[in-house]
Automatic annotation (TrEMBL):
InterPro entries for this protein: Integrase-like_N, TACO1_YebC-like_2nd/3rd_dom, Transcrip_reg_TACO1-like, Transcrip_reg_TACO1-like_dom3, YebC-like
Species annotation: Advenella kashmirensis (strain DSM 17095 / LMG 22695 / WT001)
Pfam families reported for this sequence: Transcrip_reg
Any single Gene Ontology cellular-component annotation: cytosol
Gene Ontology MF annotations: DNA binding
Keyword list, A-Z: Cytoplasm, DNA-binding, Transcription, Transcription regulation
Domain TACO1/YebC-like second and third: 34-188
PANTHER family for this protein: TRANSCRIPTIONAL REGULATORY PROTEIN YEBC-RELATED, TRANSLATIONAL ACTIVATOR OF CYTOCHROME C OXIDASE 1
Family: Belongs to the TACO1 family.
Protein name in UniProt: TACO1/YebC-like second and third domain-containing protein
Superkingdom assignment: Bacteria
Length: 197
């Protein structure tokens, strides 16, 4: 709950909107009961997609998600059809401005399982979801502020898309993210930015 509050305030969402979202999520708005639901499917060229939703109407939500996928060449799969392609984990991303050694030390002492630095110098820390709060608290105590953080579904492998396939996949992702009930969209798709198109 604290993570959601922090994300909303960081995005400059008004406190009234945040409170309404909390009330709605707790089933307190207009007596409606909202539930969390996950849909799995495929986009272009076999790129896997996981869509996490919060809804008061499963029928409407599944219809919206199916339409967003099929309109541009994807399809909705069965439960479990793509979940094995992702790892459920806590993730922290730090800018290259931070000392990699300091982040590694704090992360491992707090129970993180992996620290990786990419070619641009961004430092990624991964942990088991139950340890997310502990690792976060350790970073706060050490004065280390990540650029991004959250409990996510991290793709185990990537599906690289270029040209028209990349455009179609981006349309699928944009349409899914625009749906009112959608909270998060995860995909194995990555876009090759060096391609023209």
């Amino acid at each position: 709950m604290r993570l959601a509050w922090d994300k909303a305030t960081a995005a400059n969402m008004p406190k009234d909107n945040i409170q309404r979202a909390i009330t709605r999520g707790a089933g307190g708005a207009d007596g409606e009961n909202y539930e969390s639901i996950r849909y799995e499917g495929y986009g272009i060229s076999g790129a896997a997609v996981i869509v996490d939703c919060m809804t008061d109407n499963r029928t409407r939500t599944v219809s919206d998600v199916r339409h967003a996928l099929t309109k541009h060449g994807g399809n909705l799969g069965q439960d479990g059809s793509v979940a094995f392609m992702f790892k459920h984990c806590g993730q922290f991303i730090f800018s290259p401005d931070y000392s990699e050694d300091q982040i590694i030390e704090v992360a491992l002492e707090a129970g993180a399982e992996d620290v990786v630095t990419d070619e641009e110098g961004l430092i990624e820390v991964l942990c088991e979801p139950p340890l997310f709060s502990d690792v976060r608290a350790a970073f706060e105590k050490a004065g280390l502020k990540p650029e991004m953080e959250g409990v996510i579904m991290k793709p185990l492998n990537e599906t690289e898309l270029t040209g028209e396939d990349a455009k179609k996949m981006q349309k699928i992702l944009d349409q899914l993210e625009s749906l009112d009930d959608v909270q998060e969209v995860y995909t194995t798709a990555v876009f090759n930015e060096t391609e023209e198109g």
